Amino acid sequence: MAENLTYTYVIVGGGIAGVTCAETLTLLRPTDSTDRILLLTESPLVKAVTNVVPLGKILNRFDVEEKSTADLAAANNIDVLLDQLDSITSEDHLIRTTAGRCISYRYLCLCTGARPNIIDKAKGNANVIGIRDTESVEDFRKRIHTATRLVVVGNGGIASELVYEVDGLEEVHWVIKDPYISSTFVDSGAATFFRERLNTKASVDKEKTIYKRMRYTEQNEESASAGITKRGAALGPDWHRAFDIQKHGEAGTRNANKVTIHHSVEVEDIQEATSGLQVRLTDGTTIECDFVVSATGVVPATSWTGGCDRTFKLGPDGGLFVNWLMETSIGDVYAAGDVCYAGWEHASHWFQMRLWTQARQMGAMAARSMAAKRAGEEIYQDFCFEMFNHVTTLFGYQVVLLGRYNGQGLNDKYEVLLRMTPGLEYIKFVLVDGRLQGALLVGETGLEETCENLILNQLDLSPYGEDLLDPNIDIEDYFD
Q1: Strand partners, 52
Q2: What CA–CA distances, in Å, run from 136 to 123, 388, 418?
Q3: Domain total for the chain?
Q4: What does pLDDT average to in each consecutive run of 10 residues of the chain (480 residues)?
Q5: What range does the domain containing 174 cover?
Q6: 200, 291: one domain
Q7: Are 83 and 149 found together in one domain?
């Protein structure tokens, strides 16, 4: 007999967006409220934001930590159910799960994330793997211990950190369709700065510290229906430090200059070979390797086995179209994180990018929106959506991205100021008519809050000219 459950708020997804949404709803729930919150997740391990360090009004640096569903439920007085969304009947405010449960909701928030966009030429090959969540990194970790040759396809954050962190292999081939590395985040100048670190990392004292975080194992396998393929939540910042992805048995050996970068090419074909795989690139180059890592972006996970009784409006990227309240086109159904498309009119210095920072911000905004509707209150969009902001780590450096840091959407009508100290810092200011529109800060620059203020306030910096980045002048003294 099917189990029938009733909740005020149902959140689907145990990633950063879903967990943040559930935690925020707990904070907003009145102490005398009888409202019930359910988090529906496919994995007994969920991703929670911890150790939040403010670097400015909006900008925050934080860790992402795995938590057991039991700990999350106990800490927030919510219910967590291990199951998978099967269908939505929005007219009746009901969802059904693959285990046969029928759950009634007042408000539903979809935080189902995204799935890896595996390269087309993989053809279902078991030796071509995507890296997106904890489970896929575990698969990679097992494979790397016996491998000698690796091909990494992709040019984003995960691909960049993977190439830098993996050691002990005879060959690492990095295949990118762009003319320079890490183009998802940085310009060609910063890429050259990073390339120096990649080329000289053998001489860098980079003793890797593995985070000794609590590791959980799946104990309640019977709670999920048999035969379900579970997807874990997306990786967070410093993900590589939570896993041992080194090749063992070859102490002291590092990749160093064994990394070969193939620029402006794509994978044309992948064939099985006696020694593993044979990868042919569009420039005719043939590479033999043990396995291929595809880190070529993600696709919003918007499909459920049973679908929905109404058709969701989708964005051009396939994500669920949401307004600034994180409402989808279907009443009382919200969405947050990688699964959604930000369909509202954006602030001049903000744009959508599927990153853990925005997953956290959207999850919190969806919670505020649902709680306000429940209470009959009016709210305003969170201030964090006034300016794009993200903190990450690339090639061992802290990287801060603010506003239109690469001149996005400015139609090349902007001026760039640069300051670079090899091996230490790379600072880039993007200005239009003397006003700061974006900043890229690599290294421990200490300029995060100053740049944030200058972008938000739109102060005319023309009088300072190129002195703005003079290393002998502390610009924080001018504007703080």
Answers
A1: none
A2: 18, 29, 38
A3: 3
A4: 87 97 95 92 92 94 92 93 96 96 98 89 85 74 88 91 87 94 89 86 49 42 43 55 53 60 95 90 95 90 90 96 98 98 98 95 98 96 97 93 95 92 94 96 94 95 86 69
A5: 118-208+246-296
A6: yes
A7: no
